[in-house]
Amino acid sequence: MLSLAAIAGCALSGIHEKVTLPSDWVPKRIVAPGEELDFLFAVKHTQESKKWLLNTVTEVSNPFHEKYGSYITLEELNAKMAPPASRINNIVSALEGPSSQVEVLPSGDFIRLHTNAGVASNLFNTHFCEYSHIAGATNITRACSPQYHVPDSIQNDIDVVSGLVHFPVLSDVKVGSKADSGDIATLRATYATEGVKPSGKTSVCFTQFLEQWYSPDDLQAFEKKYCSEQVGQTITKKVGPWKSGTGTEAELDAQYIVGMGAGVDTWVWSNVNKNKVNNQEPWMEFFANVSSATEVPNLFSISYGEGENTLTQDYTDRSDVELQKIAARGITIMSASGDNGAGCKDDKFIANFPAALPHITSVGGTANCQKGAEAASFSSGGFSDMYGQTAWQKDAVEKYLSTASLPKASYFNRTGRAYPDVAACGSVEICTDHFCGLPVEGTSCASPIFAGVMGLVNDARVAASKPPLGFLSPALYAAYGKDATSFNDVIKGSTAGCGLEHWSAVAGWDPTTGLGTPNYPNLLKQLMQF
Fold first, then answer.
1. Which H/E stretch holds residue 412?
2. What is d(CA 322, CA 284) in angstroms, rounded to the nearest whole number?
3. 35, 38, 396, 479: which sits with the fewest CB atoms below 10 Å from its CB?
4. How does the average pLDDT of the chain come out, rounded?
5. CB-CB contact of 424 with 232 (8 Å)
6. Is the dihedral of CA 57, 60, 63, 64 positive or negative?
7. Given this model, what pLDDT does residue 149 score?
8. Angle made by CA atoms 157, 294, 83, in degrees to the nearest 5
9. Percentages helix, strand, coil for the chain, rounded to the nearest 5?
10. What was the pLDDT predicted at 172?
């Protein structure tokens, strides 16, 4: 194994971020100085622009506010959020050189640097290593050190730099129990979407990260076996690089967002990485791509995540700002809550990213999808240590905290942002590699299922000349407050935790399945009133 002690750089500039290197990525070699690398700089916004953004999102996402649904255009957003020109020029000047290409992205708040490892080593004060994953399938390039520096002249101009110390978390969709798995017919019956025919006026989108690809042939096989009335429906738009493949995660996302959307226009969005060797972690690349895109879907479903404790406050703060930018445009983002239950480290529960960020709607998972749902033991939930409880969830969460039997107080932050928000089936059958009937489990199943249902709601709203739902959580909690039967309450089951300390499903919101699974007719009725 490569020793990192011998390759530390000199401290010529301020430390910008420091993390704990993940144990599942192993350094194999030091990258040669001439090897090409890509980096993404997230340029710092002004405090005034961030205040404006939060206020705008709060207004347009609050179903009781007069500006609800009055989303802004990309041009308006970029004009308001653009960092000062002096800040951009300062960063560009610090990065330019004969071996470097610098590009300011159309959003104005991201800058891409293409250079070689020798230049990057001097710039960030670290050598670069090629790492391999213990699963053996993937190699990436990152800083050899768990920290990086930036020139003092731009220290206060950037939030984070992507491609240095943030490592991708590989998808770990697990093989499940066939007896427990839901299929399209079961789920449509359970969530009462049978017979719903969308008009095709809106779109849903699943994301492909880390070279996960779906197979159009497997999608057609899935439709033939599980939803024959949809045979011939395809993914209508592909954004970013694409090729056919049989990645379990991507196959799952494609098949269930299409199946539950029942005819809603469906996209796939692949993360763009210019340099495969320096394959970026997905988040900042994804945010930068969406920030610069003039054509976007109405709703994204994301099935990837990691512990919030693996990331710095600067990184998660910038991520939530990016979610707010997306919300201001009226775009919904849903995220799987995670598959590690309450999470456990050093006798404390650990929340997940991005599921526990304030401005994303997180989806937990249920088990026994064919027999009557209960909380799946793997379904992640709890309370963030980095963000406070949100206003829209206060009533539902406070009721839980005041009436439920709780774990020891030392295990969680009772004032934190509570998640998940909602839930759906966490165990399904998919078609992959020309075989149908493979059972898989995880909240990666639940997010595209719930997204498909919400695609139907969005379609109904737009067909009635109403705006799409945008940032979803405030409206979901408001619908629950007006009619709790908008959701199927999950009151059985519990999630894994720390020894005997864990979360249990109870009546109302809880950290296993949130508000519950969708009851489409009642939920639609409430959401059509906003």
1. none
2. 9
3. 35
4. 91
5. no
6. positive
7. 94
8. 15
9. 35, 25, 45
10. 61
Rounded distance between C-alpha atoms, residue 265 and residue 259, angstroms: 11
**Measured between alpha carbons, how far is 219 from 103 in angstroms, rounded to an integer?**
38
* Residue 347 in tokens: 């006798």
CB atoms within 10 A of CB 10: 9
Name residue 211's amino acid: E
What are the angstrom distances between the C-alpha of 485 and each of 191, 397, 517, 519, 524?
12, 17, 10, 7, 11
153 DSSP 8-state letter = G
Cβ(33)–Cβ(118) below 8 Å: yes
Beta bridge partners of 416: 388
Encoding tokens for residue 338?
């995670």
pLDDT at 182: 76
How many C-alpha atoms does 203 have within 13 Å on its Cβ side? 18
Report pLDDT digits (tens) over 369-413: 877 789 999 999 999 999 999 999 999 999 999 999 999 999 999
- Amino acid identity of residue 92, one-letter, is V
pLDDT tens digit string along 53-89? 999 999 999 999 999 999 999 999 999 999 999 999 9
For the cut 90, the answer to whether the pLDDT of residue 271 exceeds it is: no
At 329, list the tokens: 């445009």
Q: Is the Cα dihedral 421, 424, 428, 433 positive or negative?
A: negative
CA 121 – CA 148 distance, rounded (Å): 10
How far does CA 13 lie from the centroid of its chain?
33
Using DSSP, state whether 335 is helix, strand or coil: strand
Closest CA to 288 of 103, 157, 19, 101: 103
Q: What is the token pair recorded at 73?
A: 């255009």
pLDDT at 4 over 70: no
Question: Which positions ≥6 away from 442 have C-beta within 8 Å?
Answer: 172, 173, 174, 336, 339, 365, 378, 426
Joined tokens for residue 143: 């800083």
Query: C-alpha angle with apex 363: 360 to 367, nearest 5 degrees?
Result: 170
Q: How many CA atoms lie within 13 A of 92 on its CB side?
A: 15
Q: What three-state secondary structure class fits 472? A: coil
| Overall residue count recorded for the chain in this entry | 530
Strand order in the sheet with 427-432: 174-175, 435-441, 427-432
pLDDT at residue number 208: 77
Asked if residue 474 has a cis previous peptide bond (ω within 30° of 0), the answer is no
Mean pLDDT of 114-123: 95
Does 184 or 213 have the greater pLDDT score? 184
